[in-house]
Specification:
single chain, alpha+beta, three-stranded antiparallel sheet, 3 strands, 48% helix, 17% strand, rod-shaped
Length: 145
Amino acid sequence: MTWLAHQFQCFARCRGAASAVEFAILLPLFLLLVFGIVIFGSYLAMVHGVQQLAAEAARRSIAGLNDAERGSLAAGYVSANAASYPLIAANRLTVTSAKSDSDANVFVVTVDYDASRSFIFGLPTFVPMPPSRIERSAAIPFGGF
């Protein structure tokens, strides 16, 4: 048996590199899963924060006597409390508020957030990216009747 044939037989019997090959095959799938969890988890945290801001702003707005005061209360609440959400930048939030088109006894507060400059949109795009605009609304009826 020649030296080359002996080396080939030793290589064929060796199973030590099987783990390295399996690792090389599974690593991209694992990274895809991890990046997907980070991206969508962070995105859902931002969506939840925007929804909470809209809901609390709508609750705060009910104390106003007219639509202008209600809108001012809602915008003031959002600007005062946006910093308590770590993934949301307060300067990229827009608050609109008005009576509902379908029911004059319901006041609607809408919070719009531009997430395009968020860190998740700077990560490598291994997974499909969610939309960069987050818009959530909350409606609250006028009480007492």
